[in-house]
């Protein structure tokens, strides 16, 4: 945290959320200290540091494995500048914590996880009123942790591998219609961020660029053919394949409203992801 946010007398941060994380870290540190003392008979700062950072000692319990994997996802999210997987893992880990708490456990050893545990966890998440897709995501998280344990040699096999996934509901809407797109094009939004997202959504519809590709679109990706027609040449983020996209007149009109000169800035000044999804929701409501 920033120095001015730290209360050295109370050992607290001004942010309640960060204080909760700090308390959780303190609890994990105390548990690590007691575990090392019990197993090795001696504790040093270096041993404790290595244990907590998991540089030398892999987790032996399910929730510890979850936190270890979340830390890896956090580092990876910073490398690729996308936090969605890391953010979602927080919810899946929380379901595991709540499930263990429901029958009086703070954690469970990896070798104590059984097929019945997998069935029980799936039923617990279903009883929370979650949709089939969310239940499957939670089960995928559980299986992911157990497969990591198998890879590390902590388990011989994944005991929940035979627990079936839920049959997913058919999506209500696989695509929007031409008339719905026309409706979105004919109805500007009053809020400036919603209007920016509306325009970039339309731009995506006429270029087939995904959200991440539009987010990383710079003036250097835009050029003209010999006959003067503008096009986009860009490496697609997910596939790494170069795309050559002649611009539709509608896409050109939108492009002219934003940055096509300063190569140090992206073409579209996109807001953060949460604001984008809020705006997309509002546009969806508008289009019915």
Note down, in words, how this protein is organized.
With 288 residues, this protein is mainly α. The protein is built from 11 helices and 5 strands; from the N terminus they run ββαααααααααβββαα. The chain has helices at residues 16-40, 45-53, 62-80, 84-102, 115-127, 132-151, 178-186, 192-207, 211-215, 249-255, 273-286; strands spanning 6-7, 12-13, 222-224, 230-235, 242-246. The protein has a 3-stranded antiparallel beta sheet with strand order 3-4-5, with no helix packed on it. Strand 4 and strand 5 (242-246) form a beta hairpin. Helix 1 packs across helix 2, helix 4 crosses helix 6 (132-151) and helix 5 packs antiparallel against helix 6 (132-151).
Write the layout of secondary structure elements.
Blueprint (H helix, E strand, L loop, with lengths): L5 E2 L4 E2 L2 H25 L4 H9 L8 H19 L3 H19 L12 H13 L4 H20 L26 H9 L5 H16 L3 H5 L6 E3 L5 E6 L6 E5 L2 H7 L17 H14 L2
Antiparallel strand pairs: 1-2, 3-4, 4-5
Helix pairs in contact: 1-2, 3-4, 3-6, 4-6, 5-6, 8-10, 8-11
Brief digest:
The protein is mainly alpha-helical. Helices cover 54% and strands 6% of the residues. The chain has helices spanning 16-40, 45-53, 62-80, 84-102, 115-127, 132-151, 178-186, 192-207, 211-215, 249-255, 273-286; strands at residues 6-7, 12-13, 222-224, 230-235, 242-246.
Question: Gyration radius, to the nearest Å?
Answer: 25 Å
As laid out across the biggest beta sheet, the strand order is: 3-4-5
**Oligomer, anyone?**
single chain
Main sheet?
A: 3 strands, antiparallel
Our count of helices gives 11
Tell how many strands the DSSP assignment holds. 5
Give the N-terminus to C-terminus distance in angstroms.
Answer: 44 Å
Outline the low-pLDDT stretches.
none
- Structural class of the helix and strand makeup? mainly alpha
The average pLDDT score comes to 87
Strand content: 5-15%
SSE string: EEHHHHHHHHHEEEHH
How much helicity do the residues have? Answer: 40-55%
Shape: elongated
């Amino acid at each position: 945290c920033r120095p001015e946010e730290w209360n050295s007398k109370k050992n607290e941060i001004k942010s309640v959320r960060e204080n909760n994380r700090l308390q959780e870290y303190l609890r994990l540190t105390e548990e690590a200290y007691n575990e090392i003392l019990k197993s090795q008979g001696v504790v040093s700062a270096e041993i404790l540091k290595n244990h907590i950072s998991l540089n030398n000692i892999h987790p032996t319990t399910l929730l510890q494995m979850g936190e270890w994997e979340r830390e890896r996802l956090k580092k990876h999210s910073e490398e690729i500048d996308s936090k969605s997987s890391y953010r979602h893992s927080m919810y899946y880990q929380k379901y595991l914590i709540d499930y263990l708490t429901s029958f009086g456990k703070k954690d469970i050893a990896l070798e104590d996880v059984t097929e019945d545990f997998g069935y029980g966890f799936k039923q617990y998440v279903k009883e929370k009123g979650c949709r089939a897709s969310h239940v499957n995501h939670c089960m995928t998280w559980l299986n992911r942790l157990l497969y990591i344990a198998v890879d590390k040699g902590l388990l011989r096999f994944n005991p929940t591998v035979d627990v079936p996934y839920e049959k997913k509901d058919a999506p209500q809407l696989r695509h929007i219609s031409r008339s719905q797109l026309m409706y979105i094009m004919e109805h500007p939004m009053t809020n400036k961020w919603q209007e920016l997202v509306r325009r970039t959504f339309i731009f995506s519809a006429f270029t087939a660029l995904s959200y991440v590709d539009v987010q990383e679109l710079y003036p250097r990706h835009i050029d003209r053919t010999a006959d003067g027609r503008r096009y986009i040449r860009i490496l697609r983020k997910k596939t790494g394949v170069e795309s050559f996209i002649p611009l539709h007149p509608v896409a050109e009109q939108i492009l002219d409203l934003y940055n096509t000169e300063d190569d140090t800035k992206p073409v579209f000044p996109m807001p953060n992801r949460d604001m984008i999804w809020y705006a997309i929701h509002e546009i969806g409501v508008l289009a019915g």
